[in-house]
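Please decode residue identities from the backbone states below.
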């Protein structure tokens, strides 16, 4: 009797191993488990029920073997259940999933990089970094900057006017922020104001209707041209290298007196003369000058007590020189070949 039962146990165990390994789903595995260990009809349970009919000796041997097999079957069931979960459940790697294209990473626009670079340079020197509206009033863009309505200087900066709003213009420069800053903060004052500007221009490699400037202004007691030149020199050297030199030549801007053109030694030839600088060795990059007393007055500042300088390089032009970009139209073209470099 007990020998028969031991054989039966071995048979049950062999079948159990096959059935467990062959189960592919939770449901299949569960029915295998019921067939083996189910309380009513489980094949192993059936053998265990017979134990009570055996003599003491057989009870011990068959009982020990039956319990051992039961434990092994339970651990085989648990292992297979984990395998099935790993293959089909949450967290599974589905190797049939189509491969996604490699992600494309964006990069900062060259204008943004040049703007942040210069803003940080001036912030470190204690300048405020300010903002102003792109849709300006005629007052801030022209009037307060000493450019009255009938003045020929208006022709220098032709812009876009807004239909039905004769006093609104798309700002032609960032100099309007000078007035806004004077009115808001008074003197003494040191600020820069990067921003987008607009002009009614025919476009070519050097001209765009939409471009960026980087206004700067310092107002205080006894501010002189030396301060302006020193400031421009350190800015130019920061941008183009320590050997860069600056020279100032007279130029008319209605809102500065004297007005000047700041030139830097050519960023390509270093001053020898090349195509970029048209053989002169110098590049004109910065309109600048000492703030006109009328402009200080328009901003609510007493020109007898305070003086100041202002400068307004084209941020777009600086980015072109810094990054070697030869066509200004690239900046607004949205061409990925250009932007992805
Ligand atoms: N706003 C002038 C321009 O757009 C540049 C400038 C700024 C000149 C500040 C003098 C002082 O051309």
């Amino acid at each position: 009797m007990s020998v028969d039962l031991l054989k039966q146990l071995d048979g049950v165990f062999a079948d159990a191993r096959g059935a467990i390994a062959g189960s592919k789903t939770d449901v299949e595995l569960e029915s295998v488990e019921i067939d083996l260990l189910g309380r009513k009809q489980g094949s192993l349970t059936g053998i265990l029920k017979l134990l009570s009919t055996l003599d003491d000796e057989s009870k011990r041997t068959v009982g020990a073997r039956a319990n051992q097999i039961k434990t092994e079957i339970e651990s085989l069931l648990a292992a297979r259940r984990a395998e099935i979960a790993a293959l089909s459940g949450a967290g599974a790697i589905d190797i049939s999933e189509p491969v996604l294209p490699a992600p494309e990473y964006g990069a900062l626009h060259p204008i943004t990089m040049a703007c942040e670079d210069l803003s940080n340079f001036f912030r470190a020197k204690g300048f405020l970094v300010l903002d102003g509206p792109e849709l300006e009033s005629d007052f801030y863009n022209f009037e307060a900057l000493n450019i009255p309505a009938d003045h020929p200087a208006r022709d220098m900066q032709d812009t876009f006017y807004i239909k039905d709003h004769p006093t609104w213009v798309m700002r032609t420069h960032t100099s309007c922020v000078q007035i806004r800053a004077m009115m808001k903060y008074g003197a003494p004052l040191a600020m820069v104001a990067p921003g987008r500007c607009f002009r009614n221009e025919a476009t070519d490699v050097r001209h765009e209707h939409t471009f960026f400037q980087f206004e700067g202004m310092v107002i205080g007691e006894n501010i002189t041209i030396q301060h302006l030149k020193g400031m421009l020199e350190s800015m130019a050297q920061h941008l183009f290298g320590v050997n860069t030199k600056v020279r100032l030549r007279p130029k008319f801007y209605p809102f500065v007196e004297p007005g000047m053109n700041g030139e830097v030694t050519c960023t390509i030839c270093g001053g020898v003369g090349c195509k970029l600088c048209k053989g002169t060795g110098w590049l004109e990059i910065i309109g600048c000058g000492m703030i006109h007393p009328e402009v200080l007055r328009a901003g609510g500042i007493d020109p007898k007590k305070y003086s100041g300088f202002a400068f307004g390089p084209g941020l777009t032009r600086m980015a072109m020189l810094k990054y070697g970009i030869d066509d200004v139209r690239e900046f607004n073209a949205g061409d990925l070949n250009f932007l992805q470099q």
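Observation: Residues 56-88 form the longest helix (33 residues).
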